[in-house]
Amino acid sequence: MPLGIQRVANRLPSLWPTWCVVVLIWVSAFLNHPWLYGSLLIAWGVYDLISGRSTFIQDITRSNHPLTYWVIVVTWITLGVGVILYG
Question: Could you write out the DSSP letters of every residue in 22-73?
Fold first, then answer.
């Protein structure tokens, strides 16, 4: 592998967490487990809280668009809890 390509490949993030979640989504869809969708929505909201940004159609940051950011984060967490409780 040429050195330039190797340097770029070394900077790419590991995709195993993404693939694990994709597999879980498919399994939960086939087994009809809505609680998993709720858990993923909550995890998405928590990740947005930690990172200070949310990607929903556009990149929304807490510092540049605080109202929109908080509405999105509260939406993910509220929907997640609702799906778990009533799903």
Answer: HHHHHHHHHHT-HHHHHHHHHHHHHHHHHHTEEEESEEEETTT-HHHHHHHH
CA distance 86 to 29: 17
User: What is the Cα–Cα distance from 54 to 31, expressed in whole angstroms?
Assistant: 29
Evaluate whether 87 touches 28 at the Cβ level (below 8 Å).
no
Q: What tokens appear for 24 in the block? A: 């879980």
pLDDT string in tens for the chain (87-residue length): 455 555 555 676 788 888 888 888 888 888 888 888 899 899 999 999 999 999 888 999 999 999 999 999 999 999 999 999 987
> Quick check: 49 and 42 in contact, CB under 8 A?
no
